[in-house]
Write a structure and sequence with these properties.
6% strand; 260 residues; mainly alpha; two-stranded antiparallel ribbon
Amino acid sequence: MEYRVEELAARAGVAVDTVRYYQSRGLLEAPERRGRVAVYRDGHLAQLKRVRELAGQGFKLAQIERLLERADADGPLLDALVAEHVGGRTFSRAELAAEAGVPEALLAGAESAGLIQALEVGDEQRFSEADLQMARAGLSLMNGGLPIPALLELAQEHARGIESVTERAIDLFDDHVRKAGVRKAGVRGAGRASVGEAEAVSDLFRTLLPEVTRLVALHFQRTLVRRALERLADSGGDESLRDALTASGGSHLAIDVEWR
């Protein structure tokens, strides 16, 4: 079916200026030109609805550009990424503060430190279940005696370091899993992964994501326990604390990673 820009905008429920802006950002393919008239088709409508869907789930336009560029034809993988990014229930800042049992001002500090991250859903900022879990964990650390400013400073340092590590992890998955499937399809003459192959990549992503998270968490735990034990040995510290650290570093301790 063919649409003029006004008809396309009306079908997608957006303003004409929004259509043109998305097109200028490369999020919408250029229309066919018939003289001075721009002609759009059903594919443009589907693209426009997909961008609006992602924007409604909290992604900024720059993130949508990267998602659509990296995911290429792997629709199931993009769906999996969206599901893990958004999760289930979301919260306003006030709701998150009430659920976590912390003041809103403290959440603002945690957000500035990169410990939690708001999703922009329409004109409202929302927070995910993961943010709730991190806020509760932060509260437990503070209740244990860790000072808030030092904890937020440490969170900022961690956030700076983790960005480059995660980019490299994404590249590994992209090069050795996702693109490998596309290359195999090219050898067979298809040129791109089939729907079934794309779904297999998505399933593997869902399997590997918690395993990578568990690996990182266990490595951090082991390193922290080892360094703490070394300090105690150097200082001749508390035996009961040494026993607790030794027990915490044991292989029997499991890291539970839950994905909604």
